[in-house]
Design brief:
8 strands, single chain, alpha/beta, disordered C terminus, about 15% strand, 2-enoyl-CoA Hydratase, Chain A, domain 1, 13 helices
Length: about 290
């Protein structure tokens, strides 16, 4: 059976999870199921101290949720251990897991991909090749994983509104300036930097890591009850006729394919016709 997440252990206490869901690492129900199973292991294994999430695709970390998956199927997924929808369950349990989670972002992390990165404890990004964004408002939808509250906590209200309501792309260097990621690292140095940092943490005492993280969590993580209302609004918003029409236009223009549209979604989504690139469009890409 094909899996979407390849797991290996580079050193004692250090796990690396690599996403591989061609063609562009879409998030789908199978991704969620695999992540849920992985988080169970993170919660129970007494030896694991740090996990790095990365992508085997240099252009896409996690592109976004698969919009062709039947919405009724997604909505009807069995709740996770928290009692929430399994996607929300994955996000909140990852944030609270007794290990250090790190996203090593190379390529696009938009929509659900951005939500996943935000749920990790630490985010490092390729200065040249990382792109983060929440594009949902650009198609008439509300982001379902409530990145709004995580972004507001990280970068403040104004910048969170710029990210969510502007629906634009934020390349690595600008994402660092805004607090979207911890650090933007030159692409040629990213893998080595993240590996050294993870190995450093893996060499420390598990109890000290867990308890120190717990105190930071208490001071900084949003209450779990704030997440379900956003997902409810997501399901309402994607059923609107205008949102369906916009999504159909995007699919025809190359959404979910290895296309110019997916590579430059932040720019293309703001045009009157997504098949055309405007002469003048604001872009968060200018660092």
């Amino acid at each position: 059976m094909r899996t979407q997440i390849e797991l290996n252990m580079p050193a004692p206490g250090f796990w690396r999870a690599t996403f591989a869901n061609p063609p562009i690492n879409l998030v789908d129900p199978e991704t969620i199921s695999e992540l849920s199973e992985l988080i169970v292991r993170l919660e129970r294994d007494p030896d694991i101290k740090v996990i790095v999430f990365e992508s085997g695709d240099p252009d896409f970390f996690l592109a976004h949720y698969d919009v062709l998956v039947d919405k009724a199927r997604t909505a009807a997924m069995i709740p996770g251990p928290t009692g929430m929808h399994p996607w929300l369950d994955v996000l909140v349990r990852l944030s609270r897991a007794p290990v250090v989670s790190i996203s090593s972002i190379r390529g696009r992390a938009r929509g659900a991909g951005s939500e996943f990165a935000l749920a990790c404890d630490i985010r490092f990004a390729s200065a040249e090749k990382a792109v983060l964004g929440q594009f949902e408002v650009g198609v008439g939808a509300v982001p379902g994983g409530n990145p709004m509250i995580r972004l507001a906590n990280l970068m403040g209200r104004g910048r969170a509104l710029e990210v969510v309501l502007g629906a634009d792309d934020f390349p690595g260097a600008l994402a660092e300036r805004y607090g979207y990621v911890n650090r933007a690292v030159p692409d040629a140095e990213l893998d080595g930097f993240v590996d050294r940092f993870a190995r450093r943490i893996a060499g420390f005492d598990k109890d000290a890591l867990r308890e120190a993280k717990r105190f930071v969590d208490e001071a900084s993580l949003p209450d779990d009850s704030l997440f379900p209302p956003a997902l409810d609004q997501f399901f309402v918003s994607v059923m609107r006729p205008a949102t369906k029409a916009r999504m159909a236009e995007l699919l025809e223009a190359g959404l979910q394919k290895r296309s110019d549209l997916e590579l430059n979604l932040g720019q293309r989504i703001a045009t009157g016709r997504v098949g055309e690139i405007p002469d003048e469009t604001f872009s968060g890409g200018d660092a």
